[in-house]
Amino acid sequence: WRLGGYREEAMPAVDGKDDSRWKDEESLPAEAVHALEAERAFNLMARSEGLKAAFLEWVVPGGTVFGPGPMTVEERYAQVPDAKEDQPQLQWLPEWIVIAGSRELAMITGRWELTPVGGETATDFGQYLSVWARERNEWRVLADIGTNQPEQRALTPRATGRMIEALAPRSMMIPVASVLAGEVEGSLEKIAFRDGYRSSLVRFADRDVIVLRVGAAAARGEDHLTVPEGLAELAPRIEVTGSAASAAHDFLATWGIMHFGVNTTGVERLAFLRVWQLESSQWQIIADVYREMP
Question: Phi/psi of residue 267, each to 5°?
Answer without folding.
Answer: -95, 110
